[in-house]
């Protein structure tokens, strides 16, 4: 991490929080690799940021490993890695079935594990790096209608702390950012298609101490700090960016 300009890879970077992270990291001077299942979205953003776009489905080992090989050869080794891709729909636990549960676990937990496994060796060889995983306040304090998702995000927090311990000797920091309800296409889709979820989200929003919904840039600014040179001595931490709705210890 000696140079200030790094190669920064963001999963699910084409829209929402991931897009804001790409924009903020580009502004900080990093070379951006936008990865997503939406190739068109990734390419459009990469073009605007003078960066690179790769198709990478975090639920598919072949897709992740092929993308990692190409990225390492064609662009270089990412020393900033942001695991942002994630998904959920809100429903009572007893209405979830195996297919839904598997999908939520694959995107939100197995995905980041797989991506870390693919990119950590390069980072070790490069002499250090920053990993920032996007979890959720649901993984810290629970969230009604999000049982499986909450479990995956809690798992991601514990996974991140363990990586932080294992790879501290390699000068790789691993931290987690937990957004609260944030205004993104995902939240817009959930509230448009699911009345129960819409009511739940509206009631959370009303209780935010800072009296507004999060914006993608709020989350991206926290990621940019944890990815920066200045955060060299911060690892294994979990940072909520949620307008004060959770003040977890
Ligand atoms: N929006 C919120 O209120 C909120 C709250 C807490 C946590 N989060 C977390 O923030 C992250 C981003 O959420 P968002 O609201 O911006 O979502 P979003 O759906 O608006 O954007 C997610 C991006 O990830 C991509 N993606 C989906 N599945 C993928 C896969 N299998 N492989 C690669 N890319 C994939 C999508 O194409 C999309 O571009 C997620 O991890 C989410 O769990 C969001």
Query: CATH superfamily, please?
Result: NAD(P)-binding Rossmann-like Domain
Q: What structural class should be given to the helix and strand makeup?
A: alpha/beta
Main pleated-sheet profile: 7 strands, parallel
- Given as residue ranges, the uncertain stretches (5+ residues, pLDDT < 50) are none
* Mean pLDDT rating: 96
Number of helices: 9
Percentage of residues in DSSP E strands: 5-15%
Quaternary state of the chains? single chain
Q: CATH topology, anyone?
A: Rossmann fold
Bound molecules: nicotinamide-adenine-dinucleotide
The CATH class: Alpha Beta
When the domains are counted, the total is 1
Kindly report the spatial arrangement of strands forming the biggest sheet. Answer: 3-2-1-4-5-6-7
Compressed to H and E, one letter per element, the order equals: EHEHEHEHEHHEHHHE
How many β-strands, per DSSP?
7
Radius of gyration (CA) equals 17 Å
CATH architecture: 3-Layer(aba) Sandwich
Helix content: 40-55%
Shape: globular
Question: Can you tell me about this structure?
Answer:
The protein is α/β, with parallel strands linked by helices and 249 residues long. The chain has one domain: NAD(P)-binding Rossmann-like Domain (Rossmann fold, 3-Layer(aba) Sandwich). It is 49% helix and 14% strand. The chain contains nine helices and seven strands, in the order βαβαβαβαβααβαααβ. Strand 2 (31-36), helix 2 and strand 3 form a beta-alpha-beta unit. The longest helix has 29 residues, at 98-126. It is globular, with a radius of gyration of 17 Å. The mean pLDDT is 96. The structure holds nicotinamide-adenine-dinucleotide (NAD).
């Amino acid at each position: 991490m000696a140079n200030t300009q790094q190669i920064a890879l963001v999963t699910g970077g084409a829209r929402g929080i991931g897009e804001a992270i790409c924009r903020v990291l580009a502004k900080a001077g990093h070379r951006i690799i936008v990865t997503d299942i939406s190739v068109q979205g990734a390419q459009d953003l990469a073009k605007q940021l003078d960066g690179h776009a790769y198709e990478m489905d975090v639920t598919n080992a072949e897709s992740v490993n092929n993308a990692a090989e190409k990225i390492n050869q064609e662009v270089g080794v990412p020393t900033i890695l942001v695991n942002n891709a994630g998904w959920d729909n809100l429903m009572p636990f007893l209405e979830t079935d195996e297919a839904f549960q598997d999908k939520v676990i694959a995107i939100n937990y197995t995905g980041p594990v797989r991506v870390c496994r693919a990119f950590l060796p390069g980072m070790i060889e490069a002499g250090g790096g920053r990993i920032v995983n996007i979890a959720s306040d649901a993984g810290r304090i629970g969230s009604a209608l999000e049982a499986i998702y909450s479990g995956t995000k809690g798992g991601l927090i514990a996974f991140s702390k363990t990586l932080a311990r294992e790879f501290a000797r390699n000068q790789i920091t691993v931290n987690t950012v937990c957004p609260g309800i944030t205004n993104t296409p995902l939240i817009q889709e959930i509230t448009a298609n699911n009345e129960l979820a819409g009511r739940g989200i509206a009631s959370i929003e009303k209780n935010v101490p800072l009296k507004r919904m999060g914006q993608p840039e709020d989350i991206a600014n926290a990621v940019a700090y944890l990815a920066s040179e200045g955060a060299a001595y911060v690892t294994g931490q979990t940072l909520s960016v949620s307008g004060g709705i959770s003040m977890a210890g």
